[in-house]
Design a protein that fits this description.
single chain; 234 residues; mainly alpha; Alpha-lytic protease prodomain-like; disordered C terminus
């Protein structure tokens, strides 16, 4: 007669159960979900930073009428809005949607450059010197600080997640910090008696935006650097 099976020792049962649970609990979290959540946090943080920066600059533009500030404001507002398609791409966990969002970022940069250039040319044809120069300089400083912080958030996240779209947007924001310094320079030139410098600096900002467009396009064309992010088969 076959003896009944004996129960496994408690220690062995615990180890077996723990090993089984441990092996499968981590498998429940798809890497694409973890990446999606991390990407959304990066996008949301940069959106809040740039939206606050654009709002502050908009309030100061109403008082100053500076075309250099307006060029920077239009660009910063567009930069903040690029968070929407990027966030949607991370939410969908789609590499194809993420790449499409990156190209949309590039188009947004290009559009903001065209608008900034048109505004600067119009101000050259119809001169109007800005006033409230101290406020104007503060707006430029706010833009520089906001973009520098947003660039750090986006570049750090983009490199961790190997996301060309986020890296392109981070490079964009980092260059925008330099562009915002032009607004401070515009205020200084007007204060020194050279109001024509305001639209000229606006044109210089336009040229830099176009350069940023090309650099961002190159980053997007390069694609992910080291691995394919498709979810592993289960």
């Amino acid at each position: 007669m076959t003896p009944p099976p004996t129960a496994a020792p408690a220690g062995r049962r615990h180890a077996s159960a723990h090993g089984h649970d441990h092996g499968h609990s981590h498998g429940l979290v798809d890497p694409s979900i973890t990446r999606s959540r991390a990407g959304l946090r990066v996008v949301l943080a940069s959106l809040v930073i740039l939206a606050a920066t654009a709002a502050a600059q908009a309030a100061i533009y109403v008082a100053t009428g500076s075309v250099a500030l307006l060029a920077d404001l239009v660009h910063n507002a567009g930069d903040a809005l690029t968070a929407v398609p990027l966030g949607a791409a991370f939410l969908l966990r789609s590499p194809r949607a993420e790449r499409a969002a990156g190209y949309l970022v590039v188009l947004t940069i290009l559009a903001s450059g065209v608008i900034a250039g048109a505004l600067a040319i119009d101000r050259i044809v119809h001169p109007l010197a800005p006033d409230h120069l101290i406020a104007l300089a503060l707006a430029g400083a706010a833009g520089a600080a906001g973009n520098a912080i947003a660039a750090r958030v986006r570049l750090g996240g983009g490199r961790r997640l190997d996301s060309p779209a986020l890296v392109a947007d981070g490079e964009h924001a980092r260059s925008d910090a330099i562009v915002s310094v032009g607004v401070v320079l515009s205020a200084a030139c007007v204060a020194l008696g050279a109001p024509v410098a305001d639209p000229i600096i606006g044109l210089a900002i336009t040229a830099l935006i176009l350069r940023i467009t090309w650099a961002s396009w190159t980053t997007m064309r390069a694609g992910p650097h080291d691995h394919d992010r498709r979810p592993a088969a289960t």
